[in-house]
Amino acid sequence: KRDRKEVDKKSRTTKIISAPKDNKKELNYDAREFIPSSELTEGDTRSLIPHKQTLGDKLHPRVSRYYPTHAAKITGMLLELSAAQMLLLLANESSLKHFVDEAYKVVLAAGGVAEPMETSPPEEGEAEEDSDRDPLFFQPDKAGFYSPRTAHNSSERLNCYRNIGRLIGLCLLHNHILPLPLCRHVLKLIIGRRISWHDLAFYDSVLYENLRQLVAEAEQSPALVEKYELTFELEGEAGRGAVELVPNGAQVPVTAANVYDYVRLYTKHKLVGTARPALQALNEGVSDVIPRSSLSGLTAEDLRLMLNGSGEISVELLKHITQFNNEAGPGEPDEKISKFKKWWWGVVERMSTAEKQELVYFWTSSPALPATEEGFQPVPSITIRPWSDNQLPTANTCISRLYIPFYSSKSTLKAKLLIAIKTEGFGFV
Fold first, then answer.
1. pLDDT, tens digit, for every residue of 234-283?
2. CA–CA distance from 396 to each of 41, 246, 325 (Å)?
3. Quick one: pLDDT at residue 16?
4. Rounded CA gap, 13 and 26, in Å?
5. What is the pTM of this model?
6. Which H or E element spans position 326?
7. Which tens digit of pLDDT belongs to each residue from 9-30?
8. 8-state DSSP, 125
9. Catalytic residue among 160, 171, 183, 398
10. What is the dihedral of CA 300, 306, 307, 311, to 10 degrees?
11. Is residue 4 over pLDDT 70?
12. DSSP of 368-415, one letter per residue?
């Protein structure tokens, strides 16, 4: 019976992956090769629509691990698959490997050169296990937000998450910036709000878009969704075994009537799932410092603003709060100092958003501004030092103070400032 059960399960998995031909797109060798965003220039006509380009950027390095010689071609072939096939492809590494292997066979059949033996993909079951030595957080998407990394959740690792929760609580208590932008669902769990499937867009925009397309297909062609033969069972990650979204989920097909339940449960598993112990430890750490009731009236956006500040650098706010100290010497009249201040703000106003963030980081050790004026502790200040066109600006980030020589011209001020904020180094003043 055990052998039959394993055979039946294997055949069912293969059947799900290989939906009927009239309801899936075949791997096409004529698909255009994928070009990563890093190799494209602005306005390059070879780029794909944003959704496809983002998905390609995620797939290309993973495909390269298996077949580096044909990675561009195979990635381009995969990008032409349907939304339902993409869901299966992105489910886990074994599903991806199945599609990549099939695409490789198509490439070879079309006359492609076989990969050298040393670059052959790993055998089944060689999936890399999560380790407690892995980083505590990872970026699931390119949006720059972090989520706890799934691991074996030893007591030492969970204690690390609890300590980070305490740091979050201290930042909230003392109005400090936290240099760790968290995913939206993590923020919602901290403030005790319910997670919705739209939160997946802030976690993995590609997976969210594929689920959205699956829902759209269910509304337009209900029978089509059933023929994809998806069930409420997901293959586990890193050899953890299958995950049933509902009791006996392997026997519950996804239909147009329950597709919303499937998407909701899929999202909950993806966002929380095996990371639940880490998220719980993070919450407990926050509660060690501040009462839970103090966060009850906040939204995820409120909490992000309080923790990470405003990503948009307001020059007007800096003008309002920045204090100037004149150490240029008694020989410099007030008119010249006033003119120098105008040069300064003129240079800052014309900076790009990235340059303004670099300036604030160089100045205060934080790339963002606090949400309110009360959050500036201490208040940013600028000390104008005696004339010198040979020295660069320096900063004392502990007290948010810039030291700027009295440069002879606005262009010199701009050049020296840009050199200083883009230099990746530090020292003592």
1. 766 654 667 888 998 888 988 989 999 999 998 998 898 878 999 999 99
2. 38, 56, 14
3. 32
4. 18
5. 0.59
6. strand 323-326
7. 333 333 333 333 444 567 888 8
8. T
9. 398
10. 90
11. no
12. SB-SSGGG-SSPPEEEEEEE-SS---EEEGGGTEEEEEE-SSHHHHHH
The residue type of 114 is: A
Cα–Cα distances in angstroms (integers) from residue 372 to residues 174, 175, 314, 376, in the given order: 13, 9, 11, 8
d(CA 298, CA 6) in angstroms, rounded, equals: 49
The residue whose two tokens read 């799934």 is 150
Q: Is 45 exposed, middle or buried (0-12, 13-18, 19+ CB in 10 A)?
A: exposed
Count the Cβ atoms, other than its own, within 10 Å of residue 18: 14
Look at strands 381-387 and 323-326 and give their pairing.
Answer: parallel
Q: CA-CA distance, 265 to 97, in Å (whole number)? A: 25
Q: Is 171 a catalytic residue?
A: no
CB contact at 8 A, 200 and 211: yes
The CA dihedral of 77, 83, 84, 88, to the nearest 10 degrees, is: 60
* Token representation of residue 147: 């989520």
